Amino acid sequence: MEISNLLWTTGGIAFFTGLVIGIVLYHFLAGGRPAGNLRSRVTELEAELKEYKDKVADHFSTSAHLVNRLTDTYRDVHEHLATSANELCVDELTRHRLNDALLGSSAIHHKGEKTTPLEQPRDYAPRKDPEAEGTLSETFRVNKGTPQESDPAA
Question: From 14's CA, which of 6, 29, 101, 139 has a CA 20 to 30 Å away?
Answer without folding.
Answer: 29
